[in-house]
Amino acid sequence: MNVRIEAGFVAMLLVGASLPAYAAPGDHIRAGDAVITPSVMTGIEAHSNLYLADGGDQSPEVSAMAWVLKPRVQLDLNARTVIFNLGAGYGLKKFIDFYPDDDFHPENADRFSDFDADLALQLFPQSKIGAKLVDKFQNEALPAELPTAEGNATANVIHTGNDLSGGVVLRPGSALSFDVLGQVGIDTYDVPEVLTTEDNAAFNGRTQYGPIVNGTWKFLPKTSMVASFSYNFLRWDNNLIEALGPDIEGSDIGSYIGKPDADAWRLTAGVTGQFTQKLAASAQVGFGMMTYDETTVLEDPKAASLAGSSNELNVVGEETFATDTSIGDGVLINLQVSYAPLRGHTLTAGYRKDFQDAVFTNYVAYNYVFLRYEGTLQNRFGVGGELSYRLDDFHGEVARADQNLLAKVNASYKFTPWLSAGASGSWARRACGSQDCDTTFYSTQYDDFSGTLGATFTY
């Protein structure tokens, strides 16, 4: 477990041990100024396409059902000189094989290591000079197309990530503040060993670090002008990675793909706030660039052995591992509008245009639009829905476009302050947006219908 998360749990236990605690079911646990909220969700989850396969003869869709268990704890402390929030949760997912005699083994998609934690600390929030610390940790299993893997072979790709930022907060006036921060991020990607020929599940790892400066000017009581600048150094453990997955017909990808190190910067500015009693909005625009260092690929120890061989580094189309973000991809837009026509009902729409480093190629530039609704009826019955569309344009040795669609509905009922039940259903689709989808990237497409039915107990 991450050292910072362990330290947070120790602090939480010390608070609980040193101060008198009291609680009734649904009233949480109170220790001085701290409120501790434990909860656990359990239920059944079903998928029509567990392995997110394209449904072809070589990659059929496999439906499955799983028992899920998600305990969680939240600690909130709000005092005059310190604001502290810590949330942590564990996720267990055990798939049930109703047809043990067929060729598919859904138990290889079991998830026993999912864990996430969020920590936020503010010191002296009302002073001229303060400090802040934010840490986010996640260990998450993602499905791979391995429906027939047997025994102890897992069908999951494991992503472990930790993002830490912290520094000084300057408040020269009541309406003006600046954050001068440093950030460090660590990501590792482990793949099922049956996918790699190097007998190494540790596919790759990345370290990123750099400064962040944020500025806020509150020119109205609930409305602010905001600006942000960041510079990020991205360094990969392996700059020459295996081309995993099925062979791509008609492509020139060899056995290895270049994954160069990069430097990235972003500058954005805009306005955010509550403009009327029913309307809140945020609008930010900016520009950024991500520049890749192709020499980190050419100087990789494996590169020399590949020169002149059938596995030598190749090019797809006009893109290579030397591809940097284009001027058009560098334009940044983040818009969001929330409207509350009635008490307890909120409709939110948003659009985001941005870019980010990718795992299997240089970068992805994306456009994301969404519409969400959240409502509460008579303080007990909750309903919600979401529609979203995201267009991902990948650039580098692997150059393709993905269209990601999501439609989701959910409902819940609160029987008591400590017991609620809920149900949700969703349709997720990834469709290839490249012109040569049928021959080159057909296997990246899928549809998955899923549903969850469960209960949540909150102390």
Question: Can you walk me through this structure?
Answer:
- The chain is mainly β and 459 residues long.
- Helices cover 7% and strands 60% of the residues.
- It has an 18-stranded antiparallel β-barrel. It has a two-stranded antiparallel ribbon with strand order 12-13.
Notable characteristics:
single chain, 459 residues, 4 helices, 22 strands, 7% helix, 60% strand, disordered N terminus
Question: Radius of gyration in whole Å, from Cα?
Answer: 24 Å
| Rough outline | globular
Low-confidence stretches: 1-20
Range of helix content: under 10%
Number of beta-strand segments:
22
**What structural class should be given to the helix and strand makeup?**
mainly beta
- Alpha-carbon distance between the two ends: 25 Å
Write the element-wise H/E pattern from the N-terminal end onward: HEEEEEEEEEEEEEEEHHHEEEEEEE
* Relative strand content: over 45%
Largest sheet: 18 strands, antiparallel, barrel
Mean residue pLDDT: 87
**Total number of helices:** 4
Helix/strand layout:
Layout: H1 3-18, E1 21-22, E2 29-31, E3 34-47, E4 64-78, E5 82-96, E6 111-123, E7 129-143, E8 156-173, E9 176-190, E10 202-220, E11 223-236, E12 240-242, E13 256-258, E14 261-274, E15 279-293, H2 295-298, H3 301-306, H4 327-330, E16 331-342, E17 345-357, E18 363-377, E19 381-395, E20 400-416, E21 419-432, E22 446-458
Antiparallel strand pairs: 1-2, 2-3, 3-4, 3-22, 4-5, 5-6, 6-7, 7-8, 8-9, 9-10, 10-11, 11-14, 12-13, 14-15, 15-16, 16-17, 17-18, 18-19, 19-20, 20-21, 21-22
Explain briefly what this protein structure is.
The chain contains 4 helices and 22 strands. With 459 residues, the chain is mostly beta strands. The N terminus is likely disordered.
